[in-house]
Amino acid sequence: MSHEVPLKDYRNIGIMAHIDAGKTTTTERILYYTGKTHRMGEVHEGTTQMDWMEQEQERGITITSAATTCYWKNYRITIIDTPGHVDFTAEVERSLRVLDGAIAVFCGVGGVEPQSETVWHQAERYRIPRIAFVNKMDRVGADFFYVVRSMKEKLHTKPVAMNLPIYEKEEFIGILDLIRGKAIYYRDETLGTEFYEEEISENYKKIYDQYSNELLESVAEYDDELLEEYIKPDKERKISAEMIKRAVRKGTLDSEIAPVFCGAAFKNKGIQLLLDAIVDYLPSPIDLPPYEGISVDGKKKIKRKPENSEPFSALVFKIITETYFGQLAFLRCYSGCVKKGTSVLNTRTNKSERISRLLEMHANKREDQEKICTGDIFAVIGFKDIQTGDTICDRSKPIVLEPMWFPEPVLSVAIEPKSTSDQDKLAVSLKKLMQEDPTFKLHVDKDTGQSIISGMGELHLEILTERLLREFKVNANIGKPQVAYKETITTSVTGSKEFIKQTGGRGMYAKLEIEVEPLKGHKGFEFESKILSGAVPKEFWSSIERGAREAMEAGPIAGYPIDGVKVTLLDGGWHEVDSSDLAFNICANMVVKETIGKAEPVLLEPLEKINVVVPDGYLGEIINDINSRRGKVKKMEARKNLHFLEAVVPLSELFGYTTDLRSLSQGRANHTMQFYAYDVLPKQLSEEIIARVMGR
Is 449 exposed, middle or buried (0-12, 13-18, 19+ CB in 10 A)? Predict the structure, then answer.
């Protein structure tokens, strides 16, 4: 890695969007115009640099996030291209955790789609500055102004148009730059590498005046010099492009505004302006506040400035398994520098690890490096015990960086090896896949002894089982998908338990009185102690809470995990000799299980939010089909000859929905789905599931 580029000229960005908005095509054009590649890859041909997995090339979708680095006007831009399908939300989550800025790509026709909202709010959680790129402006039905409006309405942000599309006889031919007041046209014969500027034509002057004034109004408050000029009469104003850029940058870095650009990546229009925007408006590592962490014992906060002179610290955000090299760990360096061959500390294991090789990645290609420094996104070969979310740091100055959050899986299938020779290979391969993907889980059913794998959806599990066969050469039988049901309670109940165990030596004694009550939204677990008199010493409270949490692992109805419960410790008793952490842990587990059984427990089922785009002529049949699946249509919007439906449907009713929807609409409707919430399962269906689980 070249460390001649000053840190202020680094840009670590992600490209995020709904599926099919054109993220990967946009990334491919960026790589081409920056000179990183010499041939444009196309998604439909399976020739993109960033979608390198076989399944990605076959399906034409991004499955795993891929990193690469390129240069534009002496700025160093590291890009992570993320998936747009809801089943791979975890890939977006871990990428955003280590990025400084993001480009949200929107389809010029679809606007703000469901996964667009999800990734936008993910970026919001990490306070990542964003710019927007409205793609596919060449498509029939593309509407730049509709997308800007829908950003405001659905994302509750402040979008600021930075340029406008230029059309001639309904053909997208160029872009109007609102800051410089120029019309930009691209030469198709040079694949967009050459473009020229002209003065704004008469028929676009009115709209230019309107939107350039709106731009000034939106950003003037972020720069004192600009504001001073803006409040003067029009004829006295002396506003420069630099003033506007400075204000836009300030508003973007504060996450107060979202600059919006337009183009058509597939038609090679607007990418150079987007690259300029990355450089002009997205942050470098030094534009961000110092990174916060905690000491290894968790007792004090530690700050690290993004400087090479600081002690080395980095976060592992992704792990992949290589056939020849073993595990490849992807990291972001937050402070300091490290050289190949150095021993560093993993704060999770509190053990030293040696960095055998340092690599700069370009999708699945790599380049060996001798040293990495602050701001670098890199890969390491040689770690013995590594997990996503681990902090790797200087052994003499340890720090634990903020870990990552991942959603819980919602779908499960049984898996078993086809032959005894595959048995050991299957166990090893599943373990490797779990290390790579934090949303992929494995457990063994206590009643049947079957291995159950869980993931974020049908496509997620399908891709992973394909990888077992292709990459790990494991033949396995996959069962039918199973819904990840949960249990909860519907009323508050108190309960008590006295646990006594006498043995030849020291006995065990604990006495507890508790109350269990349902939490709003059937979500979460809370523990509270209302003991004031010292009936149970405080030193045992953590063991009581741990016992209560363990009781949540299997419910009284059908053994599903329990969610949405608050446990309050009301009273208890203890013995100076026989009471211990273990005694209170066991007592808490027993009393919580017994009390929950009396609190009118019910089954919960996962609901999915589905968004369906329906052409004229099929709306009635598709709504009837949603109703027949116990679904509820929440929102309906008509735009030209298309209808946009938003509905909430139980996940158990959606298996095979893609095929059914194609059949109902002759292949013309399409849909996306994402997890919505858990809700109480109707009594009759609940009884059927309990009977099936209990083998009745």
Answer: exposed
Contact 137, 145 (CB under 8 A): no
Where does 242-388 show beta strands of DSSP type E? 258-262, 291-294, 301-304, 313-322, 326-335, 337-339, 343-346, 351-354, 357-362, 365-369, 371-373, 377-381
Name residues whose C-beta falls within 8 Å of residue 312's C-beta, 6 or more positions apart in sequence.
Answer: 333, 335, 336, 337, 338, 344, 393, 394
Closest CA to 483 of 412, 401, 589, 535: 412
- Of the candidates 104, 131, 79, 105, the one whose C-alpha atom is nearest the C-alpha of residue 22 is 105
Alpha helices in 413-485 (DSSP H): 420-436, 458-470
Distance separating alpha carbons of residues 315 and 14, to the nearest angstrom = 17
Instruction: With beta carbons less than 8 A apart as the criterion, state whether 408 and 444 touch.
Output: no
Exposure string (b/e) for 168-196, b if CB count within 10 Å is 16 or more? eeeebbbbbbbbeebbbbbeeeeebeebe
Nearest to 457 by CA among 410, 396, 388, 508: 410
pTM of the model: 0.72
Give the span between the Cα atoms of 676 and 472, in whole angstroms: 34
Structure confidence at residue 19 (pLDDT): 76
- Contacts for 196 with CB less than 8 Å, ≥ 6 apart: 184, 185, 187
What residue ranges in 519-597 does DSSP mark as E strands?
A: 525-529, 565-573
604-to-6, 563, 622 alpha-carbon distances in Å: 54, 9, 26
- Tally Cβ neighbours within 10 Å of residue 364: 14
Average pLDDT of 96-121?
88
| CB contact at 8 A, 335 and 313 | yes
Q: What band does 44 get if pLDDT is binned at 50, 70 and 90?
A: very low
Token representation of residue 603: 């089954």
Enter the tokens of residue 235.
């004829």
Structure tokens at 566: 């608050």
* Three-state DSSP state, 641: coil
Within 10 angstroms of residue 420's Cβ, the number of other Cβ atoms is 7
What are the backbone angles phi and psi of residue 255, rounded to the nearest 5°? 60, 30
Buried/exposed code over 30-63 (b: 16+ C-beta within 10 A; e: otherwise): bbbbbebbeebbebeeeebbbbebebbbebbbbb
Phi, psi torsion values for 92, nearest 5 degrees: -70, -45
Q: Tell me the pLDDT tens digit for each residue of 371-422.
A: 999 999 998 988 888 988 999 999 999 999 988 878 778 777 888 888 888 8
50's tokens: 């960033």
Coil/strand/helix, residue 449 = coil
Tokens in use for 644?
Answer: 């946009």
Contact yes or no for 544/533 (Cβ under 8 A) = no
**Residue 280, helix vs strand vs coil:** helix
CA atoms of 498 and 594, how far apart (whole Å): 12
- Rounded to 5°, the CA angle 613-615-619 comes to 85
